[in-house]
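Tokenised fold entry reproduced for absentees:

. . .
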Amino acid sequence: MNSNSSLLSIGNFDLKLNHLLIIGILSLSFSTSFLIRSQPADHGWELNEFDPFFNYRATQYIVDNGIDSYFQWNDELSWYPHGKDVSHLSQVMLHITAATTYWIFGAGGNLYDFTILFPVIFGSLTTVVVFALVRVIGGTTAGLFAALLFSISLPILIRGLIGWFKSEPLGLFFSILAIYLFLSGIKSKNPKIAIPKLIAAGIFIIFGLSAWGGDQFFIIPLGIFFLILPFLRTDHKFLIWTIPLFTLSTILTSLMFERLGTHFVMGLGGLSLIIPTIFMVFCIIIQNKSNKNSKNRNGLIFLVLILVVSSGFLILNNDSQFIPLPSHRYLNAVNPFLTTTDPLVDSVSEHATTTLSQSFFFHSVLMLFAGLGIWLILNNSNKFHFIKNDMIAFSLIFGLVGVYISSAFVRLEVFASLSVIILASLGLSLLLKEFFSNRTKNSITKLSFVIGLIILLAFPLFLPSHSNILTATDHPPTIMNGGSIFTVSTTDWIDSLEWIKNNTPEDAVIGAWWDYGYWIQTKSDRITLADNSTLIDSIIKKIATVFSSSPDEGWKILRDMEADYFLIFVAGNRLSSDSLDGQALYFLNGGGDESKKQWFMRIAEEPLPKYLYDDGISGTDYFWNETLLGKMIPFTPVIYVNQNNQQSNSYQSGLTPVYVKDIKLPIDGDGPFRLVYTSPSFDVEKGQSVIGVFIYEVNKDYVPLN
């Protein structure tokens, strides 16, 4: 049967075989994405990571109080005693979209469960939007490849798993939708089609930016694209009003959001659109007033002039900063060579620089097809007319910019992945067209080629067996293992947070490292000193100073901060054998506060050799005997060993400390702190992991010796 044969007629629409094929592949893409993203649910039905807990609480606030109240909300559980202006500092569209979809589709069900599923649904729906986007660029075959590849892209999957109620799934959905609407708008010659699409594109790209600040990086390739459009297309009368229409829609929509507003318009994000748009308009005017032989030359001269002036402007702004600059992480993405001396920024794992091995693991064979795609596009752009010159240019710009900015942070690998997917899909589409257009090849050869291609593309799903897409996405929600290195599921954190809720006063102030702030606020409904928004550096530094101070000094600081309780988290593993006298033995450094102490000392601006040995992680005698963190960790090193059975009673380079239980601030003590709660895994059996949460009461009756 011919693929264009009509199967069913509904009004003016004819359902054809190729339509069924498209529906089938898109359904497969959606289902594959949904199933892979849902794997962590096997370990526990919880929100994943840290930020989702605040996002859930903010969504709950809208559901309970309405959108108007949300914009007036000062969150008093956050950053005691300051609170947090939520609408000014948060991902507003994420909260509003989640609340709105819950009102429509939630059917009165549990909002917590709804937010757990939210990223899976929107992340999987994005496969369809990616299809639409790449279809505009390179045709249906390329679009279908893109949908399939998007559904198994590891960087995108791991930042959109079940429970990942964070910015990226919705931000990518909105922004990819915006890019699709923009490209299809400028591709259309009909103003009645172009106008609504371009206006909607501007609205959705700001919706995406309000949901996830990282969506600013979608604006960069658009700005570059505007600079070269006058040289790519001859329909200048169309461009001179469509591009400004999109930019105007973007700017006006941004003014609706407090967090964006004039800061975006007058910042690098807005100027990355406004300046190229102005350039494009004037470049077209210059070209139209130039003769045929000099129009491109004059346009290029004007472009060089704009680039020189803009560069000089940025250099001057670097000193005076009369234009507000984005945070360091955004600047670092634009300039990977930009360094920071802020240990707080450096301590965040998602700010780590991407390595080549990580890039290969993330993209695998797609890197090969993306390179092939670039080569085939450049060599066959005239041969295959379905890819227009401006669409070629955009795909190449987007691809190169995405790979470039992702080199700064692991978190931004989603952009590299999207870039690679677009280029690889175009390459695969051109490769198939080239292969199947060759009539010399028989059916068996063509079938073998297709099967081989499928196997090659599916390879990263299953191989290697210990490190593939399926294993990388199959891990417990963070709250089930505390974000430790152990792939276990425990209720330690959930039980601890429930204990706080049921056993502390409603107005109690809980001190802890900022990592755990959102969990305490959401699960325990208690006030915290700091949280994952890392808004007030001075408070974070005080908490770091508490860790590095003596118990008396730490007590004084926490009393000044009006803290009632202080929480620490320790991750380790009990050895399969005990000591000669029957004491349980433990390895620590499993990703809890015991593994973060080097960062605490750096943030507190303390000399590391005072607290840590030359391996940068093992605590010195001073750390264990004199600091509050050393006293609060209910373990003490007793021996140092290595894999060759070398042992020492004192630290030696290359040896790892082995610990025994040692509660130094007991509940019945009269010191500055009392250990009032230990989580269940503190008493694990041999060979099991400790996901230990320890809660200390600040002794208000304590009288320091000095």
Summary: Residues 168-318 form one domain. The CA atoms of residues 66 and 73 lie 11 Å apart.
